[in-house]
Every structure is written in C-alpha cells, then in structure tokens.
C-alpha cells in the first residue's frame, strides 16, 4: 500500500524546488494553471511532469495519459502517482 | 521595365479566410500611430498589455506567437509597445542577457545561433540601449560591421556581404542609421560612411510623384519606403530634395476611412500605411494633429477583442497562411476553393514578387511556399517567373534564405525556398552550390547527421528533416540517415518529437510522414494513426495531445492531410514548413 501522506508531501517537495515556496500554500484541489498564472505555459507543464517522473521513478505517456487532466491539481497528481506506483509494484511482483 | 511592374497594386479579389487573431506587428504599428497623434487615451491598456506580455518567454525575450522562440524583432515590438502604453517594463535584466546571446561576434542576429543582419541589429541595439538601458559589449566591433554596410552606390545594405554586391535598400539605410544613433548614446561612435553619398543615394530614390521606392530594383513607390527614407534623412539632419511634393503625395494616399493606402491606386487602407504616413509626415516636420480623429477611428476598427490589432477591419483581415491551410485541408467547395486561391494570388503585390502573409506587408519565403502548395499561380507563367526571379534576388550571400529580403538565413526558410523551386520546376538564378554550403554549415553533428535551424543552432528533428530533404533535392541520397533520424525521434506510444523522443507534436509528426513519403520509407501506420486520434477534436486537429484546445486552421490542415494520405486519398504530402 502506498502511503498517501508521503506521496502528497513528496509531490509538494519536488515541485517546491521547481516552482518556489508558494507551492506550499496551494490547495489540493486548486488548479496549478490558475495558481501559477501567466508563468504556467506548456514548457512549465512539461517540467512539472518531468519533475514528478524523476521523483517517483515513473513514466508518463504524453500521448495516452491525459496530462492536462492528471497534472491539474495536487489531488489528481497524487492519485496518478499512486496508481503508477502500484502498477510498478504489481509488475515487479510478476 | 521588369516583370514586377506588371503587378497592379490592388487588394486581392476572391474570398479568403480570416483567423480572427490579433497580430504583433499590427499592434505595434497601431499603438505607435496613436501615440504619434496623441490618441492613446482611447485604447484598452490593460488588455493590450496582457496580450503583449503573453509573448514574454522565460529567457527574457519575446516571441511572435505564444510558445515560439524569442526573437529580436518581436522583442523590440513588445517592449516598445509596453513603453508606449506606459506599462512598467518587467525583467529587463533578463531581456538584456537574452539580447547579449544574439551577438554573433560582429553584430546581432534575430535568434541565438543565427547570422547577423541589419534588421536584427537595429532591433537588438535599440531595445538594449533604450529599453534595457544596457550597453553593447563590443561597440568597436559593431561599428566596424555597421561601417561595412555602405555600398558602392552610397546606400546601405543588409549586411557587409550584401554591401559588397552593391544591393542598397532604403530600409537597410533606416535600420543601419538608427542602430548607429542608438549606439552613439553610449559613446562618440561614428561609422566610416560617406554621409554625403548616403544622403544623395537616399534622396535619389524619390520619384517624380514625390514618393520613394526601396531601391533602383523597385519601380513602384510606396509608403513603407517613404517612411524609412524620410525618417532616416531626418535622423541625419536633412530632408528629401522635394519635401512638399512628398507631403502632397502622402496626402493623396489618404482613404475615406481615415487611414492610408500603401501604394497609389491601392484600395485597402491598412495599419502599416497609417504608421508609415504619420511617421513620414512627422519626419517631414508636418503637424499631424489634424489626422488624429480619423486615424483613431480607423484604428479602433482594427481592434481584436482579446487585446491586439490586425491590419484592416477585423471581419475582413484574412491572411495567406490561414487561407492556404484551409484550401489544402480540402473542406472547401470547389467554387470557394477557387475563390480562395484567387485571393492568395492577389497577395503577390508590387516590388516583391513573393507572396505576402497579409496584403500590404512584405513578401515571405515560407508563405510563398504555402501559397504555391495551395495551387496559387499554377497557370500564371509570368507570376511564377517573377517568384523565381525574386527568390534568386533575395538569396543571402551565405547561400541560405531568410524569412524575407535581407533577413539572416535559417533552415525553415531555406527548405521553403527549395520547396518553391521544386514546385516551380526550376532553380534558375539560385546559386545551388552556395545553397548546399549553407545547409552543410547547419550540421551540428556529423555522425549521426543532425542539423539546426541556424549554423550554431540546436539540433532538432524538423531542422534535420528539412536539411536532408534539401540535400536530396540537390542530388544527394541520405535515405539511411533519414530513416535513422526518424527512428531516434519516434515516440513509442505514437507520433514524433522535435527534441528527443518523449513529447510528440503534430507538426513534427507531419514532417516525419512527409519525409517518409518523399524518401519512400516504410511507415508504421498504426503508430501514427493512434497519435492522430489523440489530436483529433470535434472541429479539427490540435497541435499537441497535451493541449487539445490549441488548434487552428494550420493544425487542422496538417491533420487532415495526414488523414487523407493514410486513407489513400492523397498520393503525396505537400512539403510544408512552419518552424
């Protein structure tokens, strides 16, 4: 079982390095796009995805995964990461 | 008389497609014109500032469109417009550092890694000194480069290499002189130009009617040439030989809508003509307050609600790329398609026989390729010959082609020029040996062969595809290299990525398929079709599966062409390049 609090905290910690300390104040269901404002462009979206990939050792499928949806809020990111980590555990057990 | 003089200055006939989007150049020209006639109080400053600031990249430069790389021209227009609007210029330190990256050792380029030209040097130096309050780091080097712009005729050219070919142009005179004037703010730097001969050459470009032409190679006077000349002469403390005649000629170009037209007999008032007319009249020492109300009312009609301006009333402000893309997409009824092609053909206007992105602007290599691909000039022998002659005339001394006349070479424009030659079935007048030399200079690595958009650029899939296709046109093989290149950028889930192999986009995928088709390479249909499904929307195709709202006529065109090709309804994918 993946620890929910740990994943959430790890996401905040990883994104703090990229986006700055204000990430600590964003609500779990608040849109990153709205929170970051004009600075949040497609390049930054890719950097957010890459940061999460590196932190958790997962791979995002830019074609099949709805990146815009799953990386919109901390809550959705957490769900996405947890599912991927559980998939990895299952795959390793096979 | 040359072939170009046969082209009458008339707004294109036929029905074209309007993108409905504002344009950066138009926005700059609109705001500057309103500032000149003291009418800025009527504009929506916060909205326009938001539109301009949305072009700011994180490197400190500004781009023509959101998501595109920064360039010196867009940066000048954006920062000048923000200044005109009294907006607090943010992050000029970053902008200054970015401008430093454009230095090529002698002068400034539009983008980092590109060769310098006088357009870019003017924009970069003025932004650096007047907006960023910075300094040119190597003023002596720049002065040498500027000094080298003078031609045997006395006028200035686009670069020292062009000057050795004695190709002067009043636009180059403007940009060279204004770059020097900005540089002189940081010290007593004076180029070694023969000022008397420079002034005499510019004054000699005034024709009997009172208006000016670009150079001896152009025989139709226009407001663009007139503004560049009168403003340059004023900056040098002098004036045209026949100022009163020039003022009367400008007045004769005033239209009923409060604006101006670029050429005598032209039937469309536009924002650039207004900018050039008002600027010229000011340079000639005229009082422009009487124009204020008419100009202000005219410009108000060009406003696009999301914050910028276009070139004429927004409901009729069509452009060639959007129209050509709609024609190529294959959704128009035959009658509408013919009408749209006729409109595109009308964007071949006096003095520059290439096709203009918007009528009244300047002829662009890339747009001309799109226009021909859409079927323009298919039966117009004289028009096709004029395009080829224009192409030969604007080829840069380094062998490549730039965005338009005098601009530094880049791979997108060079590949577009090759595409034009292929469609015209001739390369007469183009130096193919020099062309190949430029393409090979853009090689970033030899093994595997990768290419950048400029000689010191970053290697990408699209630049490499474009280079290999050009080399193939020039008689070289490279089928294995193309296959290996596509494999390196193939995204395993579907589509192709411009950099690396993780993030696919429609433009790269289209170019990969067009290259596969041209080189007769095997295609993984399921792989590309899966990607195509992911970018297909209810009303067209998006540029990226990550942002399906991001679609326009061009992305829909490329997606539709791919779909038709896979369905066997299209034998060959047109060679279309954007970036």
UniProtKB/TrEMBL annotation, chain A:
A Pfam family per the record: PP-binding
Signal peptide: none
Annotated Carrier domain residues: 2-85
Transmembrane segments: none
Protein name, UniProt field: Acyl carrier protein
Organism, as annotated: Pseudomonas brenneri
TrEMBL record, chain B:
Protein family per UniProt: Belongs to the protein prenyltransferase subunit beta family.
Domain Prenyltransferase alpha-alpha toroid: 21-66, 173-313, 324-443, 466-545
Gene3D superfamilies: 1.50.10.20
Superkingdom as given in the UniProt entry: Bacteria
One Pfam assignment: Prenyltrans
Protein name: Geranylgeranyl transferase type II subunit beta
InterPro entries: PGGT1B-like, Prenyltrans, Terpenoid_cyclase/PrenylTrfase
Cofactors (names): Zn(2+)
Keywords noted in UniProt: Metal-binding, Prenyltransferase, Repeat, Transferase, Zinc
PANTHER family, A to Z: GERANYLGERANYL TRANSFERASE TYPE BETA SUBUNIT (PTHR11774), GERANYLGERANYL TRANSFERASE TYPE-2 SUBUNIT BETA (PTHR11774:SF11)
Gene Ontology MF terms in the entry: metal ion binding; protein prenyltransferase activity
Zinc among keywords: yes
């Amino acid at each position: 079982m993946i620890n929910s609090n740990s994943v959430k905290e790890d996401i905040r910690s990883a994104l703090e390095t990229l986006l700055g300390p204000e990430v600590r104040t964003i609500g779990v269901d608040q849109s990153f796009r709205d929170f970051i404002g004009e600075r949040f462009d497609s390049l930054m979206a890719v950097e957010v995805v890459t940061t999460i990939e590196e932190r958790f050792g997962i791979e995002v499928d830019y074609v099949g995964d709805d990146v815009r949806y799953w990386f919109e809020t901390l809550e959705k990111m957490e769900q996405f990461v947890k599912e991927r980590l559980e998939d990895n555990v299952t795959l390793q057990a096979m | 008389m040359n072939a170009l003089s046969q082209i009458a200055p008339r707004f294109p006939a036929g029905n074209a497609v309007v993108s409905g989007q504002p344009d950066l150049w138009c926005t700059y020209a609109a705001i500057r014109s309103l500032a000149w006639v003291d009418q800025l109080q009527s504009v929506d400053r916060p909205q326009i500032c938001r539109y301009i600031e949305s072009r700011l990249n994180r490197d400190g430069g500004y781009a023509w469109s959101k998501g595109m790389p920064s360039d010196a021209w867009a940066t000048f227009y954006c920062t000048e417009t923000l200044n005109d609007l009294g907006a607090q210029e943010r992050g000029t330190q970053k902008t200054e550092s970015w401008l430093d990256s454009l230095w090529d050792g002698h002068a400034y380029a539009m983008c980092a890694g590109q060769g310098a030209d006088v357009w870019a040097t003017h924009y970069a130096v003025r932004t650096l000194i007047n907006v960023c309050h910075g300094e040119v780091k190597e003023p002596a080097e720049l002065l040498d480069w500027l000094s080298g712009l003078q031609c045997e005729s006395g006028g200035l050219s686009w670069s020292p290499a062009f000057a050795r070919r004695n190709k002067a142009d009043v636009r180059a005179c403007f940009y060279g002189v204004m770059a020097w004037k900005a540089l002189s703010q940081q010290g007593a730097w004076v180029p070694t130009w023969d000022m008397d001969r420079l002034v005499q050459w510019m004054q000699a470009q005034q024709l009997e009617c009172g208006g000016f032409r670009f150079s001896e190679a152009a025989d139709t006077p226009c407001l663009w040439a007139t503004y560049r000349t009168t403003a340059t002469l004023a900056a040098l403390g002098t004036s045209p030989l026949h100022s009163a005649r020039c003022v009367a000629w400008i007045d004769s170009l005033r239209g009923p809508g409060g604006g101006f037209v670029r050429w005598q007999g032209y039937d469309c008032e536009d924002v650039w003509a207004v900018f050039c007319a008002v600027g010229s009249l000011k340079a000639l020492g005229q009082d422009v307050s009487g124009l204020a109300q008419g100009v202000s009312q005219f410009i108000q009609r060009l406003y696009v609600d999301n914050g910028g301006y276009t070139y004429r009333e927004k409901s009729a402000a069509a452009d060639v790329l959007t129209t050509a893309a709609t024609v190529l997409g294959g959704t128009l009824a035959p009658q509408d398609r013919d009408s749209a092609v006729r409109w595109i053909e009308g964007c071949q206007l006096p003095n520059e026989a290439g096709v203009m992105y918007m009528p009244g602007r300047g002829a662009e290599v890339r747009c001309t390729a799109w226009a021909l691909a859409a079927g323009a000039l298919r039966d117009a022998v004289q028009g096709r010959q004029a395009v080829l002659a224009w192409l030969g005339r604007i080829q840069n001394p380094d062998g490549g082609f730039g965005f338009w006349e005098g601009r530094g070479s880049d791979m997108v424009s060079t590949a577009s020029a090759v595409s034009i030659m292929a469609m015209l079935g001739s390369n007469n007048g183009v130096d193919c040996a020099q062309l190949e030399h430029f393409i090979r200079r853009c090689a970033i690595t030899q093994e595997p062969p990768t290419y950048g958009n400029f000689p010191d650029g970053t290697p990408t899939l699209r630049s490499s595809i474009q280079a290999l296709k050009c080399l193939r046109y020039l008689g070289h093989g490279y089928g294995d290299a193309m296959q290996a290149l596509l494999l390196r950028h193939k995204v395993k889930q579907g589509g192709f990525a411009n950099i690396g192999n993780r993030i696919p986009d429609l433009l790269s995928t289209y170019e990969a398929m067009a290259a596969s088709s041209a080189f007769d390479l095997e295609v993984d249909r399921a792989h590309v079709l899966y990607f195509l499904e992911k970018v297909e929307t209810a009303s067209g195709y998006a540029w990226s599966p990550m942002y399906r709202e991001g679609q326009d006529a061009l992305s829909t065109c490329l997606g539709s062409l791919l779909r038709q090709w896979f369905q066997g309804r299209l034998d060959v994918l047109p060679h279309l390049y954007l970036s």
